[in-house]
Design goal:
The complex is a heterodimer of chains A (285) and B (438).
Chain A (H helix, E strand, L loop, with lengths): L1 H30 L1 H9 L15 H10 L11 E3 L3 H15 L1 H21 L2 H7 L4 H11 L3 H16 L1 H20 L2 H19 L12 E7 L5 E8 L4 H14 L7 H10 L2 E5 L6
Chain B lengths: L1 H36 L3 E5 L7 E4 L4 E2 L7 H14 L3 E4 L13 H6 L4 E10 L2 E10 L4 E11 L3 H17 L8 E6 L6 E5 L6 E2 L7 E6 L5 E6 L6 E6 L5 E5 L5 E6 L5 E6 L6 E6 L4 E4 L7 E6 L5 E6 L6 E6 L6 E2 L7 E6 L5 E8 L2 E8 L6 E2 L6 E6 L5 E6 L6 E6 L5 E3 L5 E6 L5
Parallel strand pairs in B: 2-4, 2-5, 3-5
Antiparallel strand pairs in B: 5-6, 6-7, 8-9, 8-31, 9-10, 11-12, 12-13, 13-14, 15-16, 16-17, 17-18, 19-20, 20-21, 21-22, 23-24, 24-25, 25-26, 27-28, 28-29, 29-30
Helix pairs in contact in B: 2-4
The chains are: A mainly alpha (285), B alpha+beta (438).
Chain lengths: 285, 438
Amino acid sequence: MTRVGIKDTASTSMLVSSMLLHLSAIVCVILFSGSLMKNKKIDPETVTHIKLVDSAPGPSALDQIVTAPTSESRIPTEEEFMEAPVLSDITDQKRETLNPKAIAQPEIIKANKRKRTAKKLETPEKSETKPKPPKTKAEAKKKEDPKDFLEKRLAAIRKDIQDKKSGADKGAKENKLSGRQGDVGNSDEVLNRWIGGLKRRINSHWSILGDTSNNISTVLSVQLDDNGILKKAVVDESSGDRSFDLSAMRAVMLASPFPPMPNEVKEKIRGSGGLALKFTPKGLQ
Amino acid sequence: MPKFSKNYVMNIRYANLLIIECLILLSLSALLSPALSQDKLVIELDKPSHIKMPIVIPDFIASEPSSVSGRDLASVIRNDLTMTGLFQVVEPQSGLPVGDKPDFESWSATGAQVAIIGRFQSRGNDMQIDLRCYDVALKRLEVGKKYTGQISDHRRMVHMFGDRVMEKLTGTPGCFTTKIAFVAEGGAKEIYSMDYDGFNTYQVTNNRSINMSPEWEPNGKGLIFTSYMHRNPDLWLMNLASLQSIPISARPGINASGRYSPDGGLIALSLSFKGSPNIFIINTQGQIINRLTEGRGNDISPSWAPDGGQIAYVSDQAGTPQIYIRPSGGGRAKRLTLNGNYNTDPDWAPKGDLIAFTSRIEGKFQVCTMKTDGSDLKVLTNQGSNQDPAWSPDGRMLTFVSNRDGKKRIYIMDSRGQLQVPVSRIAGKAPAWSRHSR
């Protein structure tokens, strides 16, 4: 009896503390479940596909920006076009460009395979295969994906690369360098170089209206694939000035493809929970 | 002993459990920590390479032979958008593929971020113009409009589309369908009206007298101006539909430089029936509502703030003409111009942030802007003598008078003064920009 009594007292105190601990753990989990979910997604097995933009407000914000308002005050001699074909064609193309589903999925599979094999092999090879200029990869992609749109897009990318060699070529060169250095371990330098290349490309395509206030800023969430091709861009924080938000969106769309992402960059972005671009016109004047 | 030892064992078991739980919690917090402490990797961009949006506008396509050329039609909107100072029209103007479907790749190759494509057909006096504005970067139609009207209105139809494009791309409608009234220089000082770009000039008054200082009614249906028709500088209102004039204020002395309040209900003007010219506010029937300034100085050229709360005007009470502002309901005046001995013709910008005015600099008149506290002076002109600035209703352009090519003509420029072009076909002065499109 006494033994049981002693046992009971011992166990209740322990049980109480245990319950408290459990309770606090549950509270923790509930409070940070969102963050936990995010972290769970970053599974080492699927690291090559970097889902940078998964936050809920993104797509809706994009819809707000992308969808053209239909209300127009009409005056007698002016009519809206009712030509559905032109409009729907454009919207479809827009979707393909902005929505990762159409293009991204084949890339994901491909990227995963590549990453895994690279992991099993020696690291130097990985670093050599990664930083190849986007063109070669793009050609490989072309064979895999017969979509007309993709071909068109690739043609545009090639043209873009030829036209604006500076950004992409520099980026590619930098990546080759950074890839090697990355193995040595100077990941900050690699990251900074990649960011520098990305900034140059976006700035060179960024056009704002001359009378834009320089006290505003827009934050875009962007999602790139391993080759630096833009998969998705959404307005995370609007400046309140639609034309400025759109100028940022245009710059990002025109600047793609970006320099391919070295592993250091991928890991940094993954660890940070995504990549965001903050546009401010401060650098003017 | 056994009791004790059993208890001890139990305690150790629970302690172990606790340790395990602690470990679980620790690992949980370790999992949480990166998400809590780190946000997205943010890259800051602050150096846009263009402050003018590149836009391609190929010559419009005629579906059948027409008396109007596609090149002329395209040049209307090319000029409109260029004059705002916000767009850079890129080459080529012809030879681009303009099929039934948008060719974003070809248009993008020109460096353009926006493309405007026009098609038109005319039959007899009638004309139809289909206009589309595409966002080349985002690959979508921004504005699509079909205009039908008379061939003689072809410029107006394209201007109307230009206004829509501006609204879509900048958030503020354009002012390409607005007009500028001015006083002809030379023999008769009659009032004329023209499109903002100088086309379709016509004579408004025909009284063979001296007419001065026109101002548009806010609804665009009439003009007020000072005229010596009855040998005294009285304020008149002319209805542009009937071309009939009625006197609004015909007090002894001057009844000059009438300016409508933003809501159109009041007119600020300079009256001298009590001695030296002072600023008064009258209603549209001519009755005095308020006297704004007093004193022996000459107070002229009032200009309302866009919210109607203040009025800028010129006074020489300090010896030289300078610009002051004062609450429109009455109150203390504040002198804005402190530099130079001649600052006149204030015109308050539609956005409310700037005042344009004329300043004499090194013996010549120049058009300047300043903030409404008198700071941030910018001289916008430097060739010849330049005077009488007036803002466009969207605040993106200014009209003014310049004698840089020998005779006084009406010019327009963008708000930074980067592009300055003569628009009036005849010599003129005192330009007034209409608020509404007519």
